[in-house]
Structures are given as C-alpha cells and as structure tokens.
Write a structure and sequence with these properties.
about 35% helix; four-stranded antiparallel sheet; single chain; alpha+beta; globular
C-alpha cells in the first residue's frame, strides 16, 4: 500500500482535491511515511558481534496494513483472559446495498446505528424465554468492505452460548441451534435499524449530498426506505466455534483487519494495481480471482473505508460492556464453577498504560541480542534530535 500511495498518491490527490477529506489525506500520508526516516527511528547494535542496523518507526495508523499486528496482539491478550469455557457463536449483520450510500455520507451515525441495532437484536432475542431467557454478552467488530474493496458495511458479532439468568443466580446454557433460525433476528434487526434511521432523519442528524440530495425531502426519504421494509435483511449465523482457541484465532484475523492487506497485492504498474480476491457469489467454481484496477480507482476504494476520528470499530455489549465487564465476567465464572482468571483490561485501560518495552529481533549475523543504542526523530516527528542511549 505504501508503494501505491508513494507512486500515485500525489497526482491523485491533486486531481481529486475536492473529493478527498482530511482524514483520508492523513491516512495516505501515514502509510506513505510508515517505517521511513520521516518518522525517525533508532539504531541497534549486537552485543556479541557489534553488527549495527537502523530501524525506522511505524505510523501506528489503524488503517495501515503494516501497523495492526501489534495492536491486535495486545488486544487479544486481554480477550484471552476473558473467554468463558462455553461454545461461542458467530453472527454477521449486513446492511442492504440501498443503505450503503447513506452510510458513507453519515459514517459515524449510521455505523453506530448498525452496532446498536445488531447488539439490541441479539440481547433481545437472548432475553426471550422462548429462545434463551438470559442476559448475554457480545463483542462486535465493524467491517465496511467486501473482497473487491466495495463499500459493504457489516458487523461480526461473537456471542457466548449462554448467559446469566434474570435473577443473576445461575448460568443458562444455550440449546443447539440457538442463533441458527436467522429469520427472527433478521426481521428484528431490520425494524430496529429502520426505526433508528428514521429517528435520526427526524432529528436532522443525517446529511445528504450529490446523488442523494433529493433524500432531504421526507417523502423521498420514505420512498427510498419503503422497499427495504419488505425485503429480508442478511443476518448470517455460522456454526459454533469448536472452542476458545478457535475463537481467538478468528478474532486475531478479524478485529484489527484493514480493507486490504499487503499479502493480497500482486502487481503495481504505472497505471494499474492487481490484487487477489474471492468471489463468494460463485457456487461450485473457483472463487479465487485476480482484480485489476487503475491506481486511482484502487486508492479511491481503499479510502472509502477510512473511519471517522475517534470512532470505535470494536465494541462490547451486555455482560461484556466496558463499564462493568470485570465484575460480570467474575459472576459468569462463579456460576460456571470455573476458576477466576486474571482480569483483562478494556481498551481505555490499555491506552492509558505505557507501551511495553520494544525487544528488537535477534542479530541477523550471529543471532545475538540487539540493543538500542541511539534514537532519533525525523522531520515529521519534531523537534528533530538524536539521543545516545549508552
């Protein structure tokens, strides 16, 4: 991605100046300078053979393909301590294509509503005695892309197979197939989301531009949503995970993923970018394909998925809500009669903690321990200075 932006970004920004917002420009710049001298870095020297090398700093932007593995690892360590010894379900809520353009022009509001409607759907169904009759917890992760980088907002929800009884005195285990009859969650999700969207319109919290400007009129807005009230919305409930390790493996792949990873990029020329993608519409055929886009179109699609500043793409609800997660998890373990585990930290706690000490990779010459002997700032990490550490 850095090569794409460095090679084509400047010309594309100039040609599309009126259509690229500040957040998208910041993402482009961050990826372009990631792990270059512009951000500064440090000098490492081997204690055994004195081999010396320079390592540059990462941009740490959450949209950068190179910077997410460390954040994912830290997040997973906290989640591992919170897993319960019960089956976990995976449920995916997807917005219809007709909502996509509205969502893009109102990201914070509509994506937030997507989270809320999905979480309320699951907690409402779980609380119904006909299904489970218990309070549940869930973790939801927002993705806004499809395999071809089109705009495809959906949330992945990981839900334990059971919950706490209304009186808080026992653990209620889910029956096999608890979330599998998806027609019930699909219709409840549709109603909750459309009610929330209509309320946002009435409160003048939605904006409409370009091709959607006609939707500012109430009648046009209602006419646009009318077909959606009759069609089935996509809620996909996958089979339960085999165990906690499978849940963690899934979370490792999904929580800190960006729209496209460097591993899928195949070729970059003066005009085009090629990448691998899977066509899930193909049934019984080879799904793995190669897509070739102009560099400008590829960058446009990638930048569709830049999230608003401060928007949380991983959220916890019910028993797992940040405000009381530690106490609720302790209760769950007591009711399940399992030993307590070390409390995980929620994201606010983790952000407040100092970063763990960086341990450089071993010496490439002799395998010895590399030690940081000097740090330096770059032109984008002012004031520029060099610091000797020995």
């Amino acid at each position: 991605m850095a090569d794409v932006f460095r090679r084509h970004g400047e010309a594309w920004r100039a040609a599309n100046a009126a259509h690229v917002n500040l957040a998208q420009r910041r993402v482009m710049t961050a990826i372009e300078v990631c792990r270059t001298a512009a951000l500064g870095g440090h000098v490492e020297r081997c204690d055994d053979c004195a081999h010396t090398r320079i390592a540059y700093n990462s941009c740490r932007n959450r949209h950068c393909p190179k910077c997410q593995w460390m954040a994912a690892q830290a997040w997973l360590e906290a989640r591992e301590a919170e897993l319960l010894p019960v089956p976990y379900y995976h449920v995916v809520f997807t917005l219809p294509a007709q909502i996509g353009a509205i969502a893009y022009q109102n990201k914070a509001k509509v994506y937030g509503l997507l989270f809320t409607a999905a979480a309320e759907t699951l907690t409402t169904i779980a609380a119904d005695p006909k299904h489970l009759g218990a309070k549940i917890g869930l973790t939801a992760v927002l993705h806004t892309w499809g395999q071809s980088l089109d705009h495809h907002p959906h949330v992945h929800c990981v839900v334990p197979g059971g919950g706490v009884s209304p009186d808080g005195l026992r653990w209620v285990r889910s029956r096999p197939g608890f979330f599998l009859p998806v027609r019930v969650p699909s219709r409840l999700f549709r109603r909750l989301f459309l009610e929330g969207l209509a309320a946002a319109f009435d409160a003048s919290e939605l904006q409409f531009f370009s091709d959607l400007i006609a939707l500012k009129d109430r009648a046009a807005f209602e006419a646009h949503l009318a077909p959606l009230r009759r069609q089935e919305w996509v809620v996909h409930a996958k089979p339960p995970f085999a165990g906690p390790k499978q849940v963690l493996a899934y979370l490792a792949r999904y929580t800190h993923r960006v729209a496209i990873g460097n591993s899928r990029l195949l070729d970059l020329t003066d005009e085009h970018v090629s990448f691998r993608w899977k066509d899930y519409r193909e049934i019984g055929r080879q799904k793995n394909k190669v897509m070739k886009l102009t560099a400008g179109e590829f960058m446009r699609r990638f930048l569709l998925h830049v999230l608003p500043d401060g928007f949380h793409r991983i959220r916890h609800y019910g028993l797992f809500a940040n405000g009381h997660r530690a106490d609720r998890l302790a209760l769950c373990r007591t009711l399940l009669d399992v030993a307590p585990r070390a409390n995980g930290h929620d994201e606010r706690d983790r952000e407040a903690e100092p970063a763990s000490p960086f341990e450089p990779p071993p010496c490439p010459c002799c395998g010895g321990r590399m030690r940081i002997i000097e740090t330096f700032d770059g032109p984008l990490s002012r004031p520029y200075q060099v610091r000797r550490l020995e």
